[in-house]
Amino acid sequence: MPETSPQSTTTQVGGARQNHTTRIGRTYRFEAAHHLPNLPDGHRCKNLHGHNYRVEVIVRGALDSRGFIKDFAEIDAEIEPLLKLVDHRLLNEVEGLENPTAEIIAAWFFARITDCESVRVYENDDCWAEVTGR
Asked: So what's the pLDDT on residue 5?
């Protein structure tokens, strides 16, 4: 039998043994204002402005006895308190987000989510930053 790890799992699917990686994802949204204090004067993002953020969370792991990596409700229980800290807030006032670039916001979420493979933060439909690891 092949060796398994949280990243690679061997399961029986339709009677055939399969070695694969299992990932699940969930998307969340929040609205917030921010300004980027480390930019030069005259840069438009140095001014106070807001975004309708979208946060995509990917979790990777082995299936448990329920057939889940993690129940989506378990992910929600981790993310919802974080969303309350940032939704309809000035992000610069949130601890760890004093310079709230999309990259820093993604890292802030990533550091607070158990078994997280990646977090992608969209400021709008076209612009995003992603943090991966573990």
From this structure: 42
Q: Cβ-count burial of 11 within 10 angstroms (0-12 exposed, 13-18 middle, 19+ buried)?
A: middle
| Backbone torsion region of residue 58, taken as left when φ is above 0, otherwise alpha when ψ lies between -120 and 50, otherwise beta | beta
Whichever domain contains 78, its CATH number is 3.30.479.10
- Residue 26 structure tokens: 């969930």
Q: Is residue 28 one of the residues assigned to a domain?
A: yes
pLDDT in tens, 14-50: 555 567 789 999 999 999 999 999 999 999 999 999 9
Q: Compute CA distances 116 → 8, 14, 19, 43, 105, whole Å.
A: 15, 29, 21, 34, 15
Read off φ and ψ for residue 91, nearest 5 degrees. -60, -30
Residue 56: domain span = 22-132
| Position 67 in a domain | yes
